[in-house]
Amino acid sequence: EPRLAMEIVYRFGAIPAVLLGDAELPDALGALPAWATVFSSMFLHGGWLHLLGNMLYLWLFGNNVEDAMGHGRFIVFYLVCGILAILAHGIAEPASEIPTIGASGAISGVLGAYLVLHPRSRVLVLIFLGFFIQTVRLPAALVLGFWIVVQLFSAVTTSSEASGVAVFAHIGGFVAGMVLVHVFRRRA
Asked: What is the value of pTM for the model shown?
């Protein structure tokens, strides 16, 4: 039911104006303290495509980052990147009353870490040429560099309210991953 889904998103999504500002949810919706929504929001998604897209990126890039850190450190790294991503979005749009959901910020942290760890690794990319699909192996630095440029372009040209995408969470997570990988990676 759409009403129930929306209620869940408002209860467990991270709302910048509630998290960092003075806004409050109605008592009927306030299931969690605002700080806890930073965690719960990472485990909600806006549908199957949102979830599958995030899991595809995690599958493609996450295992190599996890190998560099170990299982326990990777989990903490992932959660910290997600938290910093949500805070970046909240700082960029502090008055927003739209709930932020999804693991994209944490996944973006994984992408940033992968770029630092494996910039020359070749990534298999699908290129659509009309009716034809071509696969090409491109350097990770090129693929992830293009991805972050698209995020930056989106951030300056479209608001998250208009696009429905919290691009500042993507950017914040990516930068957090690039920085934090140095703290979380195992020493040789």
From this structure: 0.90
